[in-house]
Amino acid sequence: MRTIARFFASPALAGLAGVAVLLGILEAAIRWGWVNRQIVARPSDAVASLPLLIEEEDIFANFLVTLGMTGAAALIAIGVGVPLGYLLYRRRVLGEAYEGWLAAAFAAPLVLLYPLFLVIFGRTYFTLIIMGFIPGSIPIILQTRAGLSSVPRTLVNVGRSFHVTSRALFWKIMFPHAVPYIFNGVRLGVMYSLVNVVAIEYLTDFGGLGRIVSNTYFRYEIPSTYAAILFVIGVSVLFFWGFNRIERWLRPV
């Protein structure tokens, strides 16, 4: 009993155990005919078809395509989002005017804008990057402004009491305090960029991982479709885990 208690005391292992239980329930429901296997593949069939999918679809090369589009979108989002967040902090009127609009846009299904960008830029990688950049930049803008706004006035006043220049005050006091907020915005921005890039790849049948899901779905290869979806989920989990590790490295306390 103590061993079981220690097992479930670990958040990661408890999470994996919960996923395994849910997959087991789904496997049993499909085998017993409660769920139509023509619509939902058994988890065991999806896992079994993954090696074949890797061989036939060159899934790792397509992963690099998606990774490149996501990386480009995220870098542009950071390059645009951090300065805009600083601008909204510096210009209080602009911050109060646009923060609500940005929050509403962040909650909106921006992926539905893809037909507009298809008309403007065509079925190209640039369309994927733009569609990843737009939702990725919003949390970075909001979190940058929130981080700078959260700097205690005491720290700013202490810096000014030592006659620190405005530039040094920003880089040595304000920016370090805001880094955790900005990093959280970057993490959200990258994840939203990845989700939207994969979604547009699926909708346009162009690009990397999303295109594989689209191809297998329209060929009605149900196990391969779910295998591709599992691979995409695995990539998302890897991204999230990686950012958590980076954050712990940057903020060991």
Low-confidence stretches: none
Using DSSP, what is the number of strands?
0
The shape, in one word, is elongated
Please give the largest β-sheet.
Answer: none
- Report the C-alpha radius of gyration, rounded: 22 Å
Protein described:
This protein folds into two domains: 2-37; 51-250, MetI-like fold (Orthogonal Bundle). Helix content is 84%, strand content 0%. It has eleven helices and no strands. The chain is elongated. The two termini are 33 Å apart.
Give a quick rundown of the structure.
Helix content is 84%, strand content 0%. The chain is mainly α and 253 residues long.
Label this structure with key terms.
253 residues, mainly alpha, MetI-like fold, 2 domains, 11 helices, 0% strand, elongated
Record the SSE blueprint.
Blueprint: H1 2-9, H2 11-31, H3 43-57, H4 59-90, H5 92-107, H6 114-121, H7 125-149, H8 153-161, H9 166-204, H10 209-218, H11 222-250
Helix pairs in contact: 3-11, 4-5, 4-7, 4-9, 5-7, 6-7, 7-9, 9-10, 9-11, 10-11
